[in-house]
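Work Package 3 (structural annotation) set out to generate three-dimensional models for the target panel prioritized at the project kickoff. During this period the team completed the workflow that converts sequence records into discrete structure tokens, so that structures can be stored uniformly alongside our sequence database. As a representative example, we reproduce one entry of 174 residues exactly as it appears in the project archive.
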Amino acid sequence: MSFRCATCDEIHEGLPDIGWDRPDPCYAIPEGEGEGEGDQRINLTSDTCIIDNEDFFIRGVLEIPINGQQASLGLGVWVSQKRENFYKYLENFDSADIGPFFGWLSNSIGYYLEDTYCLKTMAHFRGCNDRPTIELEPTNHSLAIDQREGISLEKAWEIVHSLIGSKITEGLSE
């Protein structure tokens, strides 16, 4: 399968990473009150989001290992952060010497029957302009089990196909 990367606009072969362009709470902001000239409710970049100067989010990569492969399926998700940790991250964006920081997963991943929104996470910072890796708390949730135990290549493709067309962007750039 080939796909056009939303980040670099190039055609790539193989399994794409999938990413959400914003945390789910952004969708609760009524149209016309979100982003825009003179409107400060949502301050959104490709890596950070602030809503109403009260809710803080960072974008990271939740990696699901693919059994028998050296690759993983990357899900570009958003996690909430305490104000202090959010600003510490901004001040040390290119450093692996901070964290990990606790956060709540802030995207619903529609493939999973059990809601993924508000699963407990840890954001591990990598530096080198790489987005943090997002580790789920080791629970019995299907997504946490997939991250811990890995999935088949067939299941990875099933997840990708189920998510394309949702509130996501293809071709996540780390």
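Residues 153-163 form the longest helix (11 residues).
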